[in-house]
Amino acid sequence: MAHKAHVIAATVLASILLAGCATVEENLELRKPAARLVDVKFTEAGPYSATLVFDVTIKNYYALTVPLRRFTYELSSAGATFLAGSAEIRINLPAESQKTVSLPATVDYPAALKILHSVGPGTIIPYEAKVQLTVDTPRLGPIMLPLTSAGELALPRVSDAPPASQ
Length: 166
Description:
Number of helices: 3
Order of helices and strands: HHEEEEEHEE
Oligomer: single chain
Number of strands: 7
Largest sheet: 4 strands, antiparallel
Distance between the termini: 90 Å
Helix content: 10-25%
C-alpha cells in the first residue's frame, strides 16, 4: 500500500514539474531565440554576380542584447542546389524584442544559371531555401537556428552590357 502511494506521489510530482518546464526555462533565461524566414529575393544582378536577400524575423527572449554572427544558406529548385554559401554578419538583436533583418549574400549568378540550365533570367522558378543562423546567447553560448522556406523566386534580368572597366 505504501509503495502504491509513493508511485502516485511521484507521478503527480513529475506531472507538475513537466507542466512547468516552459516557465522554468523562461525564468532561467534558457529559451532560445526564435526565427522565421519570411522572404527570399534578388535585389540586383549584374553580368558576374547578383545579390540575394533573405528576410528573417527573429524574436529575442533574453533581457540582454543578443548578437547574430553568421548565416549559411542553400537554395535549390527541382532538387538541384544552385546557390550555397555563408556570410559573417554583425547584427545585434535588442533585448526582449522582435526584429526583421535582411541578410544579403553576393552570389555567382552566371554559375547559378548554368546549374539551372533549362531556365534563364526573367523566369519564375519554384525554390526551397535552407538558412542557418548562428546566435550568441548569454546562457547557452553560440546556437544554430535552422530555417526553411519554399515558394517562387523571380530570376533577375541582367543587362547585356559588360561592366565598365576600372
